[in-house]
Write a structure and sequence with these properties.
By secondary structure, the chain is α+β, with helices and mostly antiparallel strands. It is built from 8 helices and 18 strands. α3 packs parallel to α5, α4 runs antiparallel to α5 and α7 packs antiparallel against α8.
Length: 305
Amino acid sequence: MARRKAPRLPAAAAALATALTLTPGTASGQARDIDWNAVGRAIGRPLTTESQGVHTAEWLRTDLRVVNAGVTENPAMELSAETSFHPTSGGRALMIGEITLTGDEVDTVVDRLQRGGVEVTALHKHLQEETPRLWWLHYRADGDPVAIARTVHSALVATGIPLDQEAPGERPIDLDTGALDRIIGTKGENENGVLQYHVPVAQQVTDTRAHLTLPAKMEASTLLMFQPLGGGRAAVNGDFAMTADQVNRVIKALRSHGLTVIELHNHLLYEQPRLYYLHFWKTGDATELAHDLRAGLDQVHAPRG
């Protein structure tokens, strides 16, 4: 994952991000207990240090040509393997990740993760009519980060992912990103030519096994992705992160704006409050799409003034 500039957040989201950086699990002394270079060597590539004490690695599925609803997908549309670590205490870390798999890769990857003590937390679809058919596997572990990284690497080598690839860059995005930023209410990130927005959930979310408040990048945010299609058009995909009482309000808002609702499911096992994730799809004028997605965001965040 390319090193990113910290996004500008709305006031409420910024306050939440500040609060998260002050949780006990982010204490600098605990972070120094972990040799992140050793973790990177174990997982097979140097980790990127993100905001809120998160350390990440990502590999795009550049080995696959994925077409969904007539759109050839940029691998940065979450066709990837992602792993995020956050220190907890005593040299331990919480790891949360996901990986895009072909059908014949799923069982081997599951077996290798579980053999090394990494828990499978979800298996489902993110797209509605993709070829080849794909699955998204979510996983989690809490313990020695080097041992966890070795286990994740052993699973990755069972896939067709090119593990020696360079980190995703910032290819040009042929969209009015400033206008989209204003509509969504935060600054998007350029990942391999895809504009991504991570909008933190309004609630504080805790992993009750690791006793850690989850940073936004570790499943505590809504992910909105815009892939440019030319002429100001885009394909949007991603997932809304919601509590139970928000689910049907968001579905109603998205459907009223013509978005295809793909799947509703969980990604985690031990989070409190329980979170649900809604995946969606639509193509069209990028600015109009941003307004469509803003209608969903307004159901999970206070409307902007």
